């Protein structure tokens, strides 16, 4: 039996030049490298330069992903940008990326699921490609979170960073076996009862302002490990795999303690977890594609490897994607 699978052809990342370390932060607010490292595993983060936009970072990551795939921009007919920090309320920053790449066909739109954005966008691209609506998609996660942080709120501003990552995916006719390359299973979830646990206190229809990130950290932490574990279990069951089959676990990089907690609950080998939170902090929708491009560039993820992506974020939203690279 033949089936259409969404296969990853290439990936790329982009990080702004400016590095902001925990020691730098300790000079700005009442915090310490020790507190941040012990609670989160974060050591430093990147901050977008003045004039550097979500779309420009996304376009840089997109160019790297297209080159890695051995393609040219014209080969892409769908762009989905996962972001909570678009350049403007509208138009979608995805169309700016489309224009920067010189693509004038197909479609481009933004997707908003906060830190789960990349998982939601990849699952959406998978559905569109499998339905035969498009042939090749660029899935981008890009964020300028530094622009929506309250730099006087030490409980949130130490956690986030800026950056972008992207993958190019293509619809391919394969055998329909679980040994196929491509996306094997996806699970998306949300529960709006928790929307006030992690949110931005502004918006076009409420305050007419952009707003700042607000978070009930301990509540987010409490939900994260159980929700992440549940959705990973559901995704593995859908595909008929066990946690021990996974070659690489590439979680959303929010907090090393959350990653370790979820990995322990699932019995995942810690050596199989890709961790970039120490260097990038939480880049929201950009964190997974940035981690993927890091692990591809250093040779850890290889063609044929079974890779599990997982994320949770504001909403709450959460989800997982199982794929064979
Ligand atoms: N530096 C020093 N002290 C701090 C800082 C800081 N940056 N921030 C808070 N504190 C203080 C608090 O004021 C509090 O002091 P008090 O006891 O005198 O009142 C103390 O540290 C403990 O505060 P808590 O919020 O209870 O600290 P906790 O141990 O829960 O750690 C943290 C906070 C790291 C945010 C944790 O709750 C967490 O990791 N939550 C998950 C949140 C997360 O990762 N969100 C990312 C987005 S969601 C996602 O992507 C999954």
CATH architecture term of the largest domain: 3-Layer(aba) Sandwich
- Distinct helical segment count: 10
What is the name of the CATH topology of the largest domain?
Peroxisomal Thiolase, Chain A, domain 1
CATH superfamily of the largest domain: Thiolase/Chalcone synthase
DSSP strand count: 13
What brief labels describe this structure?
325 residues; alpha/beta; 2 domains; 10 helices; 32% helix; binds acetyl coenzyme *A
How do the strands and helices of this protein lay out in sequence?
Elements: E1 3-14, E2 18-21, H1 22-28, H2 33-40, E3 44-47, H3 54-68, E4 78-82, H4 93-100, E5 107-111, H5 117-130, E6 136-144, H6 154-157, E7 162-174, E8 182-190, E9 198-200, E10 213-215, H7 217-239, E11 248-251, H8 256-266, H9 277-280, H10 287-297, E12 306-313, E13 317-324
Parallel strand pairs: 4-5, 4-6, 11-12
Antiparallel strand pairs: 1-7, 2-3, 6-7, 8-13, 9-10, 12-13
The structure holds acetyl coenzyme *A.
Can you put this structure into words, describing what you see?
There is one protein chain. The chain has helices at residues 22-28, 33-40, 54-68, 93-100, 117-130, 154-157, 217-239, 256-266, 277-280, 287-297, and strands at 3-14, 18-21, 44-47, 78-82, 107-111, 136-144, 162-174, 182-190, 198-200, 213-215, 248-251, 306-313, 317-324. The protein has 325 residues and is α/β, with parallel strands linked by helices. It has 2 domains: 3-174, Thiolase/Chalcone synthase (Peroxisomal Thiolase, Chain A, domain 1); 183-324, 3-Layer(aba) Sandwich (Peroxisomal Thiolase, Chain A, domain 1), CATH 3.40.47. The strands form 4 sheets. A 5-stranded mixed β-sheet has the order 1-7-6-4-5, sandwiched between helices. Strands 8-13-12-11 form a 4-stranded mixed β-sheet, with helices on both faces. The chain has a two-stranded antiparallel sheet with strand order 2-3. The longest helix is centred in the last third of the chain and has 23 residues, at 217-239. The mean pLDDT is 96. It binds acetyl coenzyme *A.
């Amino acid at each position: 039996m033949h089936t259409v699978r969404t296969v990853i052809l290439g990936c790329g990342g982009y990080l702004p030049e400016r590095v902001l370390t925990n020691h730098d932060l300790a000079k700005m607010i009442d915090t310490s490298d020790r507190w941040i490292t012990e609670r989160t595993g974060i050591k430093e983060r990147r901050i977008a330069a003045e004039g550097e936009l979500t779309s420009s970072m996304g376009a840089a990551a997109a160019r790297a992903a297209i080159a890695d795939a051995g393609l040219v921009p014209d080969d892409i007919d769908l762009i989905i940008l996962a972001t909570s920090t678009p350049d403007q309320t509208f138009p979608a920053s995805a169309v700016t990326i489309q224009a920067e790449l010189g693509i004038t066909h197909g479609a481009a739109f933004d997707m908003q699921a906060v830190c789960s954005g990349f998982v939601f966008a990849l699952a959406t691209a998978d559905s569109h490609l499998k339905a035969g609506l498009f042939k090749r998609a660029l899935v981008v996660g890009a964020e300028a979170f530094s622009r929506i942080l309250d730099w006087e709120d030490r409980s949130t501003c130490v956690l986030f960073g800026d950056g972008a990552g992207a993958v190019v995916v293509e619809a391919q006719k394969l055998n329909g076996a679980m040994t196929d390359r491509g996306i094997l299973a996806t699970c998306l979830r949300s529960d709006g009862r928790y929307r006030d646990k992690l949110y931005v206190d502004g918006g076009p229809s409420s305050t007419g302002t952009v707003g700042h990130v607000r978070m009930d950290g301990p509540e987010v932490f409490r939900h994260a490990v159980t929700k992440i574990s549940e959705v990973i279990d559901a995704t593995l069951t859908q595909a008929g795999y066990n946690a021990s089959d996974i070659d690489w676990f590439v979680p959303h990089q929010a907090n090393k303690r959350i990653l370790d907690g979820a990995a322990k609950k699932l019995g995942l080998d810690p050596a199989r977890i890709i961790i970039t939170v120490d260097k990038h902090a939480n880049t929201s929708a950009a964190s997974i594609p940035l981690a993927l491009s890091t692990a591809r560039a250093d040779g850890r993820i290889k063609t044929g490897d079974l890779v599990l992506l997982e994320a949770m974020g504001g909403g709450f939203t959460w989800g997982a994607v199982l794929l064979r690279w």
